[in-house]
Design a protein that fits this description.
With 375 residues, the protein is α+β, with helices and mostly antiparallel strands. It folds into two domains: 272 residues, no CATH class; 74 residues, no CATH class. It has 14 helices and 15 strands. It is globular, with a radius of gyration of 22 Å.
Length: 375
Amino acid sequence: MRSETGLYVGQDVRMDVVLSDRALNRATLARQLLLDRVDRPALDVVQHLVGMQGQDPELPYIGLWNRITAFRHDDLSRLLYAREVVRGTLFRGTQHVLTADDYEWVRPLLQPMLDTRQRGWFGRHVDGVDTSALAAAARSLLADRTLSRPELGRALAQQWPDREPEWLARSIQTLLPILHPPPDGLWGRRGATPFVLAEDYLGRPLEERPIQDLILRYLAAFGPASVRDMQAWSGMTRLRPAFEELRPRLCTFRNEAGAELFDLPDAPRPSADVPAPVRFLPGFDNVLYGHADRGRIVRADQPWQLLSHAAITVDGRVRGLWRIRTTAGTAVLTIRPFEPLTHEESAAVLDEGEAVLRFATPAADHHDIAVHHQL
């Protein structure tokens, strides 16, 4: 049996059902709250999405603006100050914002992956250093206080004077559960990154929970998805046995290439002909980095490196890039489509572009949009 239009919740699910790329696209957009903006608190949305990319301060703000009706900058900033949402090194070893409640159990699950990334990224800089001793020294230095990354690096270099302070401090972000409290991570904020021990900042210890809990949360936000998809999103490996344990609780499909996809039985899988509005996504958005196979949202001939830039989706697929520059009080949104858009598509892109420009640069005296049809 082949489904070209996807399934609705409650429809019979069997292994021979094939979901087209377009059906997977609509299912993923629905899970990612990108088909319609929702009237939900920002905390609930961050929790549903299992965190958001926070490599740069502005990224989660733009991501939430795309998903929440009437989202304001203060909606996230207040959560960061209230310690209900935190920022730290998480999935794939990159900076994410996550609810504090989720951080408590997700961060320990990621530790083996982060240990591997530490050896790969920083191994040559700390070669010969006992990482257990390095972590213990950092924990002692950070006990009940906050240090900036340069301050921590200099303090660690007193014990390892032959090492670069910056790389000693950067290693600590993977070796220990470190958070970066506000004003770090606030909209438009740049400066030295503060380091604090997560247990001290949250006032409670981290806890151990089974990996199956994270798999179920991932599928709710990114499914239908394969084992490889979750591994690509999280940075973890060897998750097949955990998926197999959950198999009796899950439903399965195939994509057009024949790969097995897992999903929650009652999760939304809207029809493939459901309209998908234009969205101006931030760089590294969840929907672009949630799967090993990005064919559901990105064409095969589009270089994946482009996805580190801010992407424009039209009819649910990446069709161009965008960037905002502000000079002398004038904010200019530059739009670069990959190929010509129809009149209706262009109008929708310009409308949404005006909206994101107003959100991102409310203090600008003038706003302008420039469209360039070549990258």
